[in-house]
Write a structure and sequence with these properties.
The chain is an alpha/beta fold and 342 residues long. The protein contains 9 helices and 15 strands. It has 2 domains: 143 residues, Alpha-Beta Complex (Quinone Oxidoreductase, Chain A, domain 1), CATH 3.90.180.10; 141 residues, NAD(P)-binding Rossmann-like Domain (Rossmann fold). The N terminus is likely disordered. Bound molecules: NADPH dihydro-nicotinamide-adenine-dinucleotide phosphate (NDP). Its EC number is 1.3.1.95.
């Protein structure tokens, strides 16, 4: 079946979707195919997706990470925003603008890198007033996660007068939104990146200073290091996470949400028992829906990052999604990628 030049679904029943297949043992192929509504899971809410976005987890799913997606072929996409077509649960009206982030979307449920999704009603949040569907996807799971990291730091007592806040993986999706949000809230942000050539992107988002990723490497050999930063958001995990913990000032804490450099880290107790450092875990996937809705209201209201939203994102087509996911998989992404399916 042909795909229209506008890229829209061709009839009421068919739609375009990204498709990941295992073509040989351990080798995965990504393409755009035409699917039919009856191929979707029998969930209550069918949504016409206008925008999606790319996250690191989508890259893992697209390249065959079985901890994210057990069975292939599969359509990735942990984020989706669009308009309700039908809702058998009666919770949403046809035509209502909504968004979905996390839960099982794009993991083992056909995901948002498609013009249609079908999901349970308790995964769906009405689009908060103040955000467009596109802006909601500039934020997406990355924005939700960054906002939750900032909330955790504030709940732990963080304030702009405490000193600098470190953000690792700063050019990534979560990292770049964390930089913009913390800067908006008056914090001085030290952005750590492996892409010093993107320093201007980070200062444009409000970073106070930009540090080379290698700055943290020498701390690997120390049990505890000179206190340099008051608080931190770590999107990278692995050895970096504990290097950050070693350098936090007395009473500080790190919101840990990611594993871009690795899931394991070795630690000792000194930063915890000598400086009272807090390790604050963040999950945006299984967070209860009412809490997600509260965070969305915040991001649409007092935490709206306005013009930074424009600087953060590049719009791409569904056809470009595989190429850009490959970049994310290599750690080469910068900011956010919004998949425009209008
Ligand atoms: P991105 O791919 O957009 O960003 C990841 C960034 O991490 C890269 O751009 C790079 O930034 C840095 N990075 C990559 N590889 C390495 C490495 N080997 N060592 C150090 N830094 C590296 O990913 P997302 O922003 O979508 O996600 C970031 C992390 O957060 C992921 O691990 C993801 O799984 C996790 N996550 C967790 C969630 C939760 O609920 N807990 C929700 C969403 C994401 P730079 O070059 O600037 O250093």
């Amino acid at each position: 079946m042909a795909i229209t030049s506008q890229g829209n679904a061709m009839d009421d029943d068919s739609f375009r979707a990204m498709w990941v297949e295992e073509v040989a043992a351990g080798k995965y192929d990504q393409s755009i195919v035409v699917r039919r509504l009856q191929d979707l899971p029998p969930n209550a809410v069918t949504i016409a997706v206008s925008h999606s976005s790319l996250n690191y987890k989508d890259a893992l799913s697209a390249f065959g990470n079985r901890a994210v997606t057990r069975e292939y072929p599969h359509t990735p996409g942990i984020d989706a925003a669009g308009t309700v077509i039908a809702d058998a649960s009666g919770t949403f009206e046809p035509g209502q603008k909504v968004l979905v982030t996390g839960y099982d979307l794009g993991m083992n449920t056909a995901g948002g890198l498609a013009e249609r999704i079908a999901v349970p009603a308790d995964w769906v949040t009405p689009l908060p007033p103040g955000l467009t569907l596109r802006e909601a996807m500039v934020l997406g799971t990355a924005g939700m996660t960054a906002a939750l990291c900032v909330e955790k730091l504030l709940e732990a007592g963080a304030g702009p007068d405490d000193g600098e806040v470190l953000v690792t993986g700063a050019t990534g999706g979560v990292g770049s939104i964390a930089v913009a949000l913390l800067a908006k809230l008056g914090f001085r942000v030290a952005a750590v990146t492996g892409k010093l050539e993107s320093a201007e992107f980070l200062t444009g988002l409000g970073a106070w200073k930009v540090l080379d990723r290698e700055t943290l490497a020498p701390f690997a050999n120390k049990a505890i290091a000179k206190p340099l930063w008051a608080w931190a958001v770590d999107t990278v995990g692995g050895e970096t996470l504990f290097n950050v913990i070693k350098c936090l000032k007395y009473g500080g804490g790190v919101a840990a949400c990611g594993m871009a450099s690795g899931a394991q880290f070795q630690a000792n107790v000194f930063p915890f028992i000598l400086r009272g450092i807090s390790l604050l875990g963040v999950d945006s996937v299984e967070l209860p829906l009412h809490k997600k809705a509260e965070v969305w209201e915040k991001m649409a209201g007092p935490w709206y990052i306005g013009e930074q939203l424009q600087k953060l994102a590049e719009d791409i087509s569904l056809e470009q999604a595989p190429e850009f996911l490959a970049r994310l998989h290599r750690g080469h992404g910068i900011g956010r990628y919004v998949v425009d399916m209008t």
